[in-house]
Amino acid sequence: MIILFFQLQKEHSTPLYEQLYIGIKDAITNNQLAVGSRLPSKRELAEFFNISQTTVELAYSQLLAEGYIMSKPRIGYFVEEIDSLPYRKNNVMDFNFKNVAKQTEYKIDFSSAKIDEDAFPFTTWRKYAKDVLDKPFKHLLQTGERQGELALRVEISNYLHQSRGIECQPEQIVIGSGTEQLLPMILKILDDDFLLAFENPGYSPIPRHQLSQLAIPISVDTDGIVVEQLQKTKANVVYITPSHQFPTGAVLSANRRTQLLNWAAKAPNRFIIEDDYDSEFRYIGKPIPALRGLDQNDCVIYLSTFTKSLMPSLRVAYFVLPPTLIKRYQEHFNYYSSTVPRFEQHILAKFMEDGHFAKHLNRMRKIYRKKHDKCIEIFSNYYPQISISGDAAGTNILIAFLHDQSELALQQIALQHNINILPLSNYYLTEQSYSKRTFLLGFGHLHLHEIEQQIHELMAIWNIFRKLVN
Ligand SMILES: Cc1ncc(COP(=O)(O)O)c(C=O)c1O
């Protein structure tokens, strides 16, 4: 008879039959029990462990069901042959965790991607979340519409009409979990042999090393993307941020807008991808209407996100297709489910339907304006040698100054003091030489009353001369 080298613990919270099952299973998988060897009968095992036969029976039936043992009627139970699973050493301990980007908490964070955390309308959001996460909405447990929930697409089309000068039907809108997820979808809808042009400097939802092989960089000046440069390339698709160029903050001038639309209309299959990120908060002049609103030839694919207007963690963005591309979208994505949970989509739809999104934008515009004005005031009062640009909209400004250290060295000095601030060179696809050190100073996340001291702290560690003001 085979011998089992384990004990059962009668006081343990794991039931006895389960302890027995685990013990025998482990003995089989560790080759302590040879294939074909006969297991003790139920009675023998029950006597051996001083347990009931029912307990043994339960353990044996589990082992039978999982194929560890077989039963020969009236003879007994035998160890089955099981294919051994390939065993790969778990290399977790050897893994270099230093290579995994961790989210760092900085003492001062001038990141342009962060939002104000104190002004979020938690109470209202919670109310809608509570309403939606309840029995009357139980149908939301099932898979939803591929393009995103109709209720949310209706609200987005209303918002685009009222605030961005865009006329579109909910059928043209596709909702997804972020610009990063949606841009590859858009590119798939376009012809396979598209050639992409990107703003340089610019935002890249595609990793930079891939982008530099994939895309043609086009310069940006104070009027936005230099269309003359684009015209000289073979690109047929261009990705732009016309309302608030990222990261320079330039607004695409009226002349360039017309030039760009004409460029797109001149040949078939030319498209403009308009990323309207960060266009909601404008401090100087009137809101800039979206380029899509001027498009008469169905050349503009409009892309936007709730990342800045609500919260980056919501992961809701969308694109608006020209009617001519809807069929292509359906052909390519009729198998693809929406990447945003249905419950989140309905919470957002209700929030918008009841006017809270518009209210939130107005409130945030005032809050960000105060922070924006504070930054401008500090630089013009104390650091007149620093030039400021990109300050008409968004939640960051650009500061530029002469310095004998490089942008990278200055960034490192800031990091050594636990201050996060990104240089403009971070956003260039190609090597650039420009005389002034330029940084994006994001203020969205900062507290109004701390901004002055935080800017002084940064300037002090960079040894930037501070003018004395009485
Ligand atoms: C121009 C631009 N578009 C989009 C995004 C991010 O969008 P999402 O959070 O929807 O992926 C960013 C973030 O920095 C951006 O700079």
From TrEMBL:
SMART domains: HTH_GNTR (SM00345). The keyword Translocase does not apply. InterPro entries: Aminotransferase_I/II_large, HTH_trans_reg/aminotransferase, PyrdxlP-dep_Trfase, PyrdxlP-dep_Trfase_major, Tscrpt_reg_HTH_GntR, WH-like_DNA-bd_sf, WH_DNA-bd_sf. Residues 14-82 form the HTH gntR-type domain. SUPFAM superfamilies: PLP-dependent transferases, Winged helix' DNA-binding domain. One of its GO terms (molecular function) is transaminase activity. Gene3D superfamilies: Type I PLP-dependent aspartate aminotransferase-like (Major domain), Winged helix-like DNA-binding domain superfamily/Winged helix DNA-binding domain. Keywords: Aminotransferase, DNA-binding, Pyridoxal phosphate, Transcription, Transcription regulation, Transferase. It comes from the Bacteria. It holds the Pfam family Aminotran_1_2. In the C-terminal section; belongs to the class-I pyridoxal-phosphate-dependent aminotransferase family. PANTHER family: HTH-TYPE TRANSCRIPTIONAL REGULATORY PROTEIN GABR. This is PLP-dependent aminotransferase family protein.
